[in-house]
Amino acid sequence: MLWGVAHNMTDTLLAAFKRIMSMTDFQTSWIQLAFYGSYFCLALPAAIFIRKYSYKSGILLGLGLFALGSLLFYPAGMMMSYGFFLVALYVLAGGLSILETAANPYILVIGPPETATQRLNLAQSFNPIGSVIGVFLSKIFILSKLNTAEAIDRTNMTPEALEAIQADELAGVVSTYVGVALFLIVVWFIIRAVKMPVASEETEKDGVISGFKRLFKNKNYVRGVMAQFFYVGAQIGVWSYTIRYVMTELDVMESGASDYYLISLVLFAGSRFLFTILMKYFKPSILLAFSSLLAILLSFVVIYASGMTAVIALVLISVCMSLMFPTIYGLAAEGLGNDTKLGGSGLIMAILGGALITAIQGQVSDISGSIRLSYYVPMLCFVVVMYFGLAHYFHKPEKKQEEVV
């Protein structure tokens, strides 16, 4: 739930900084580059740390960096520096990377392997609840504080007047993140005090290189990492530009457009619980392929339709995406044995797709002058996800990795 709060507060920052500092879509995509670039850089060190110590130690380290990054928003706001905000986001996201690298595989290994994917979907169902909270916080404390002055109006202001407006707008950003940091500190002490179950695969005595060699030979795992890269790129692209898209199609301001983003997340949350139930009756790989196909079709509507019809299609894509991350993660991690921690780091590093593909989508929007056409980018990503689902269904699963003695 907590990293859901952070992810979706970050998504709304794109719309906020676009107005506050009069940026292009590509310039604001640096927010996602800092955020998901940190995911990529910290995931492997996190796995090595967890292998040496424990899942709980990884969770505490992740929460600590999450809180520190949130607190760094205060000096960034005082300096009114976009670069400093990116540094704060990098630290914050590093904590989330460590947190996810610890929590996801931990959930997989503390129960029967037959229900691991379903169990991860259930746990991840609380992620979009956090997402809804994150967007709600952003709407109330960040987006509603934005001045209505457009970029062209701001260029005609005196430096003093512009700085006063920006300072007031950034104050909403800073106070929100500092509030989150204080809450995280309380959670850190609660987690520290709680006794957590010990996972069944606590020690690996061979090296990291040997583990990765085994992983690279596992075709299902490699396909899963690729699918995760493109899925996260699609998800972040769809959500990052939702507010911009709705503003264009319905002629509303950021605060009003964020209502549709919030609806998307509510549907995302409810659908994840629904898909968790459906996994009792259908194979996860089939559900993954079907939802990807539906997302592709809805993307066509987003690109070629207009007005409320297009906005509804955009909102419904979130229903399709709801099962994708945990299902790809669970299917890719099947049979990894004692390589589950390292495998988890690779699947978290794949989140870099959220930075790179979002930047590409921003460039497509800037170059074409159409936010609609930019949705070709996530549509193509869903094709890759559908391929992984079908490949997992039609091919025999990899033999379970040998336990490391």
Description:
With 405 residues, the protein is an all-alpha fold. The protein has two domains: 1-194, Up-down Bundle (Growth Hormone, Chain: A), CATH 1.20.1250; 218-395, MFS general substrate transporter like domains (Growth Hormone, Chain: A, Up-down Bundle), CATH 1.20.1250. It has helices at residues 2-20, 25-28, 30-52, 55-71, 73-79, 82-109, 116-124, 127-141, 151-155, 159-193, 208-217, 219-240, 242-250, 254-278, 284-304, 307-321, 324-332, 340-349, 353-368, 376-394. Helix 12 (219-240) packs parallel to helix 18. The longest helix is centred in the middle third of the chain and has 35 residues, at 159-193. It starts with a helix and ends in an 11-residue tail after the last helix. Residues 400-405 have low confidence and may be disordered.
The name CATH uses for the topology of the largest domain is: Growth Hormone, Chain: A
The chain-level mean pLDDT equals 85
Series of secondary-structure elements, N-terminal to C-terminal: HHHHHHHHHHHHHHHHHHHH
Tally of alpha and pi helices: 20
Q: Which structural class best describes the helix and strand composition?
A: mainly alpha
- Backbone shape: globular
CATH class of the largest domain: Mainly Alpha
Quote the beta fraction: under 5%
Question: Which regions have little confidence, pLDDT < 50, spanning 5+ residues?
Answer: 400-405
Rounded to the nearest angstrom, the radius of gyration is: 21 Å
CATH homologous superfamily heading of the largest domain: MFS general substrate transporter like domains
Characterize the biggest β-sheet.
Answer: none
Helix content: over 70%
Kindly report how far apart the N and C termini lie.
35 Å
How many beta-strand runs?
0
Number of domains: 2
Query: CATH architecture of the largest domain, please?
Result: Up-down Bundle
